[in-house]
Specification:
The chain is an alpha/beta fold. The chain has 17 helices and 18 strands.
Length: 577
């Protein structure tokens, strides 16, 4: 005998079947009240009995309605008194037709939609006399259907499964519209209504963020600006800025994007927007060329290349956080409230997937690096440390996956370009955002800088055009510069011209850091015992000038003490000697 579990979720959240049984029981009880008070010589009891009976009738009507919805949920064909099945009233269909103009009626897309919605479809072992709804309103622009409203059969959208299937069918029916457009379809189960609206592609091909009036002048200014700092991502189809406050529940961001999606351009733009606000930036990438020009730029403390330098950089940020929390603990022990008045830090970790796989393949115990990252993501918000984690793709399992414990703090997922299937299946996208991300992702494919944002907390998915901002060493106002360095439009160039003086005015609030390696063999050491715990050392003084004696600790210097022996590979050529 199958085991059943009694529904304890409360009336509102209970199944339609449970609600019907509950309301029916109460309704019958109400009908019995006049019998219960029969024979009592009391007008008050008489009135109460018949009032209860009236309430019983009302409850039974509600119970019948809930049982009908239960029938729909179970796939049961609901019979009406006529025995013809549940249908749209023909009179309602005729009334709706009067609202459809001749131009709309002759539109091919409208006719495809009408055939799907209004013509009979199989329903169990029988067929309805009409379809599952009627189009009550529709509009076209030229040959393009741009909006419609469908009135469905009562309760037709009550089941989540049927609702999901129908919305997907409607979306796929009209996907062959103009390039860059997509349908936004909303269903209201309570009103038995579906509204479809074509969203036209109104995005700019390129746009730059507006510069601040000035750069941060000191740590006090940087701390003040941090309170209003935002991830400036780009603009939506209506030209509205898409941004998220670091102190408004979005301390860190996860960014995915394949080759050509604009991930590196986005990262450099983001670094610059935070650098001028007084953030000290720590940047790591599997491809040094993506950020090499930032080495030596004021406000950039480290540009790490490769797994060893990345491990040192991440451990350095972790140690700085430990220091900040230790200072706050001393304040609390002295009877003072914690203040966390520290200049903000930005950690940009590009090519996370390949970096994680390298860590696992090169070291016996890669967990030291993973634990450092976990600590930064969990505890960084309070002490003003923020992370942008970037990867070409994400996996649900394996060395390159994003651990579940990290996801709670990566409340914002950004995809530049169409997210890959395995990325959509990863924990970066929640069940609430996955379908919308897949749909929008198909429309942004092949469009430079176009992407989508999935909000983990709200389940909202937003399409946007990412900013193409000024970045020292990677952008140029010189008309003779290579095309990839020049502004993509006159409008972007005009904004860049206003960025340059602000960018050039930035002074470093922290020194550029080197790695105090002991020799070329340093890179061959163990991650835990040697590499991650290698000290860092200042390469610049308070005025931003290089400290010559420390040049040997600069991985980008010709004097770098950690330089390995040169390869004897002479390159690909015809000389076989």
């Amino acid at each position: 005998m199958p085991t059943t579990t009694r529904d304890k979720s409360g009336f509102t959240l209970a199944s339609h079947q449970s609600q019907a049984l509950c309301l029916g029981t109460l309704g019958i009880s109400g009908l019995l009240w006049p019998i219960a008070v029969w024979g009592f010589n009391s007008p008050l009891r008489f009135l109460a009995g018949w009032a209860a009976a009236g309430g019983g009738v009302w409850l039974l009507m509600k119970a019948r309605e809930r049982w009908r919805l239960h029938g729909l949920e179970e796939g049961v064909f609901v019979e009406e008194p006529s025995g013809l099945g549940q249908v749209i009233d023909p009179a309602e269909i005729e009334t709706a037709r009067t609202n459809i103009s001749q131009g709309v009626w002759e539109n091919a897309q409208y006719q495809r939609l009408r055939k799907m919605v209004e013509e009979p479809e199989p329903d169990g072992a029988r067929r309805n006399r009409t379809g599952w709804g009627v189009i009550t309103s529709a509009h076209v622009d030229g040959d393009q259907l741009v909006s419609y409203v469908i009135r469905t059969v009562d309760g037709y959208l009550a089941t989540k499964g049927r609702k999901t299937v129908k919305l997907k069918e409607l979306e796929e029916l009209l996907t062959s519209v103009g390039s860059g457009s997509r349908w936004e379809i909303d269903a209201d189960s309570g009103e038995d209504r579906i509204v479809g609206k074509l969203i036209m592609d109104m995005f700019p091909k390129a746009i730059a963020p507006e510069p601040p009036s000035s750069g941060a002048i000191d740590e006090v200014d940087a701390i003040r600006r941090h309170a209003k700092a935002r991830w400036l991502l780009g603009v939506d189809g209506a030209g509205r800025e898409v941004s998220y406050g670091l102190t408004e529940g979005f301390p860190h961001v996860l960014v995915v994007g394949g080759t050509g999606g604009g991930k590196s351009v986005w990262a450099r733009t983001m670094i610059e927007t935070f650098r001028v606000q007084g953030f000290t930036c720590f940047v790591a990438s599997g491809k040094q060329t993506d950020f090499a020009a930032l080495n030596g730029v004021p406000g950039i403390s480290m540009v790490a290349d490769g797994r060893e330098e990345t491990a040192v950089m991440v451990r350095t940020v972790r140690k700085e956080m430990d220091r900040r929390y230790a200072e706050e603990a001393k304040l609390m022990l002295a009877g003072n409230p914690p203040v966390f008045d520290y200049a903000p830090l930005l950690v940009v970790l590009d090519e996370y997937g390949s970096t994680a796989m390298e860590m696992h393949s090169a070291y016996k115990d890669p967990e030291a690096f993973m634990k450092d990252m976990d600590f930064i993501l969990r505890k960084g918000r309070e002490c003003k440390v923020h992370v942008a984690l970037l990867s070409q793709t994400l996996r649900k399992t394996g060395d390159a996956n994003i651990p579940g414990s990290w996801q709670a703090n990566l409340t914002l997922t950004v995809s530049l370009g169409e997210p890959e299937s395995q990325t959509l299946l990863s924990d970066a996208f929640t069940p609430e955002t996955r379908d919308a991300a897949r749909s929008i992702g198909a429309t942004v494919k092949g469009k430079a800088g176009r992407g989508l944002i999935a909000e983990r907390m709200t389940g909202r998915v937003v399409e946007f055009q990412s900013y193409y901002g000024w970045s020292p060493g990677y952008t140029s106002l010189d008309p003779a510069a290579a095309e990839k360095y020049r502004a993509p439009s006159p409008e972007v160039r005009e904004v860049w011209e206003r960025w340059v003086p602000v960018s050039d005015s930035v002074t470093a609030l922290k020194p550029r850091l080197g790695i105090k390696a002991e020799g070329p063999e340093w890179a061959e050491g163990d991650l835990v015992d040697t590499i991650a715990n290698t000290p860092v050392i200042a390469l610049t003084d308070a005025s931003g000038n290089d400290i010559p004696k420390n040049a040997k600790y600069d991985p980008r210097s010709a004097e770098w003490i950690g330089t390995r022996a040169d390869s004897d590979f002479a390159g690909i050529g015809f000389d076989a000697s």
